[in-house]
Amino acid sequence: MGTDPQQAAGKPAAKRQFRIWRGDETGGDLKDYTVEVNEGEVVLDVIHRLQATEAPDLACRWNCKAGKCGSCSMEINGKPRLGCMTRMSTFEESETVTVTPLRTFPVIRDLVTDVSFNYEKARETPAFAPPADVAPGDYRMQQVDVERSQEFRKCIECFLCQNVCHVIRDHDENKPAFSGPRYFIRAAELDMHPLDARTDRREYAQSDMGLGFCNITKCCTEVCPEHIKITDNGIIPMKERVVDRRYDPLVWLGNKIFRRGQVPQTSATSGHSSGAVTSGAAQGGAHAHGGGSHAGGVHSHAGGSHDSAAERQAQQGVNWHREVPHPTAPAVDANGKLPLTELTFNKAAAPSPFGDDVTFPLPPEHLNFAHPQQDEPKH
């Protein structure tokens, strides 16, 4: 055997302290090791040396050792990292390096975890839908569209972002409804694709992938070894597009004008709009300022009578004649002035528009509102 070049150069291998989790799905514990570390080595090198010397049965997943396959994901001193990209020089010589498996996923053995959750979510994510009027081989894209989503294609699927996301890291119950940041950027990439024929990706991300669970802590961006700006360039723009679609006033106005997304009238809703409705009356039980009557025949100030719809609603326990109390005046001091701060006032915040003498929730018999989807009583 030849002389180690580092030792020949006067740089002998240093002894370093490691703590590595050993165990399986039934349980385990951290075990201490003292191992030689040479200059320029990474954590994965040290694990391989342990496998060759003290711990031949140590299980560890790895492949390329070049930071491109994402196989050697682990937690090093509590932070999700790639073993092949974490240099030993980043730690103090006196520091004990603790290596544990990915916390979010079930342990198979030692540092190997079952990441099949991610493959299940990959299958659930709708694939690219090519345009029907363009033949394969004739797809054309502008360079700006290519560059916009190119960043997301750098993902090596190490699943460090999935592991660090607190939505599922400490809450297994969220996994069925949450796809995670890796697949949010997949949905964002396809939503940006000019040739993708699907138009419901943002709605699907919100309703089926659990986009609303994400609260933008940017943990996923911080641990990404490819430096993908997952949150800023993927998740936040997707959330903004969801909000634009649902809450943008111009979109709302367009939906009203062209009656897009309107719920068809059912027997349950039409039952509340039957009866005498005078000109200018608002539908659904609103007060008619011009004719002095309630739509749906709920109560007629002119005739003072109830029709059959009102009687049915009364049987449902809805008090249509309840007078809503007027707001009470806020308390003032001896000089007739409002208190300057809540510290000198007997109530927090502003006076209630319902009156300070009203306590919520109100009992049902005091309500004068019936939900439009309420079922009709069966006689």
From TrEMBL:
PANTHER family: SUCCINATE DEHYDROGENASE [UBIQUINONE] IRON-SULFUR SUBUNIT, MITOCHONDRIAL (PTHR11921:SF29), SUCCINATE DEHYDROGENASE IRON-SULFUR PROTEIN (PTHR11921)
Domain 2Fe-2S ferredoxin-type residue range list: 16-103
Protein family: Belongs to the succinate dehydrogenase/fumarate reductase iron-sulfur protein family.
Family annotation (CDD domains): fer2
Names of required cofactors: [4Fe-4S] cluster; [3Fe-4S] cluster; [2Fe-2S] cluster
NCBIfam families: dhsB (TIGR00384), PRK12386.1 (NF009052)
GO molecular function: 2 iron, 2 sulfur cluster binding; 4 iron, 4 sulfur cluster binding; electron transfer activity; metal ion binding; oxidoreductase activity
Protein name: Succinate dehydrogenase/fumarate reductase iron-sulfur subunit
UniProt biased composition (Polar residues): 263-277
Domain of life: Bacteria
Any one annotated GO CC term: plasma membrane
Keyword 4Fe-4S: yes
Biological process according to GO: respiratory electron transport chain; tricarboxylic acid cycle
Pathway listed: Carbohydrate metabolism; tricarboxylic acid cycle
